[in-house]
Amino acid sequence: MGGNDGSRTVDAQFSEYVAARQHALLRTAYVLTGELASAEDLLQTALAKTYLSWSRIRDPRAADAYVRKIMVNEHTSWWRRAWRKQEYSTAELPDQHAGPARHSQSGVPGGGVEERDAMWALVQTLAPRQRAAVVLRFYEDLSEAETADVLGCSVGTVKSQTSRALATLRAQLAAAPTTSTGGAR
Amino acid sequence: MSADLDQRLRESLHRGADALPYAPDLTHGAMARGRAIRRRRRTAAGFGVAAVVAVAVPVGLQLGGDVTGTQAPVVTRPSEPVGPPSTTLDVGALPRGDTPRTPWAEGETYHGGGVTLDLQGPVGDVFRTDAGAYVVDDPIGPGEGRLVTAAGDVQRLYGAVDRLTQVVSSPDGRWTALLYEIGDPQTTRPTGRFGLSVFDATARSVVFQQEVGESYPWLAAVTDDGRVLVQPTDGRALVYSDGDLEPADVTGATAWSPEAGLYAVTTRLTESEHCTAVRTQAGPRLWETCDWSVTGFSPDGRWAYGMPPIPAGYGQDRVAVLDARTGEVVRRVTVGSGSTDAGIIRDHTFESGDTLLLQVEAGDQAALVRLDIVTGEAELATEPVTVRPIRGDTPYALG
After folding, report:
1. What is the pTM of this model?
2. Which residue does chain A place closest to B33, by CA atoms?
3. Pick from A43, B85, B89, B308: most CB atoms within 10 A?
4. Do B17 and A30 touch (CB under 8 A)?
5. Residue A91 CA neighbour count, 13 Å, CB half
6. How confident is the model at residue B64, as a pLDDT?
7. Does any CB of chain A come closer than 8 Å to the CB of residue B26?
8. Residues paired with residue B319 on neighbouring β-strands, in sequence order
9. Is B311 on the interface with A (CB under 8 A)?
């Protein structure tokens, strides 16, 4: 059975990579989606695509960035599809700022979640690109240039997306009851 | 205030991530999904290979491939026949030829039947169905199985949370069969169960829909008279015809040529070995090989397309065309660029009886390449394009 060594090596390398990095990547997916099942689905999707292109990832150290890129873009794509299915008639994607209804759904004011982390709930209400920018900048600690590379946009766009996200969070936190703490102290 | 907000945000995100429990190993699931994509494009080996990864089929699984005891003497081809005609495709050195004569997509643009169409969405597969209608699908993920007509009309072909795993059309484009993994309507996550839809382009509707098993069943063929041969993971293949799905007279089918009256069947499948036999519809085996797995026949049934027995998920370093009646390797194909950096073959389709269209990647360049099976002459059917790493996938789709 000649000729199988190549694919086996690829599979072995890929398996080793996933075993070593899965949990860290899943954390990123979870911060992006805010929901475990979706995070697992998002990561598996990204890993499947990474597996298909594993031969092109010469530097294993670049694999995290590769998976991260796919996750961010895939998550935005999912969100766009979900939005399309709602059959909205507007041409623009809604900038999903947190309104009272979203607050209520996420349980921020008046629910048990608020004591745990109002900020976390508010992040989940951000539009996906803004959320991605926030996650990459404040969770992954990427620079603005690195974030721009992942998002496939300019540094200026990263700055504006991040700025808008922070402004939204600041406004929502100010509007929320004072019992909504930031959590850890 | 700003620094405080930044810090609160940073702490919140890390605290949320810290609360995450350890998840089950996603490796095999990811590899199985990756291979399912390749299967859909007919570049992964046929029946059962994804199942080996996905459900850890016990070593030594034997698949007879025959339901009758009558067998002609089997010609077992020697391992790697000495000196089969070989062609090495060097994308950078090939001359430019005509654009493909079969449907294809580059990026989100479809070409085929004299029509160029902006599909306005990610493309997984393109298949001419009939009268200017085309099947497209998101490369991965649920819910985007679409039939887009030249007029821009869109029709859904399966459930919004289902994931397409394979689509095959009849040569005349009237019938299209789709296999998809059924999604849970509540969570949208895959259930591990698979469904079959049959679309009739003349009626412009899905005329049949039924669950067909678990662990990646395989579409072996769709014929001009509306028959569909689907091979579940275990047991006999099923044949759809005129509204009914009945057991077929074959087990382990990976390909079917009604024109030539031939089946390709898996005869042995382990984690390190995949053997294929070609038999007539009447029963007798004609030949068997463990060097190549046969995943399709040419439209006239003269040639069989062979892939490495244990395929790589991302594409193959070599493929072969075999004489369907004798198993002789008539053309062995690899990709090279004159350096040590060999390329891969990601997809193929028979453009005509003796012409193969291959989707080739070498380095960061991808192109569709036309290969004359008999002479070995090759030419570019498209200009090479740079692969976009962010998509994690190929810029082309072949119909």
Report:
1. 0.62
2. A48
3. A43
4. yes
5. 0
6. 40
7. yes
8. B333
9. yes
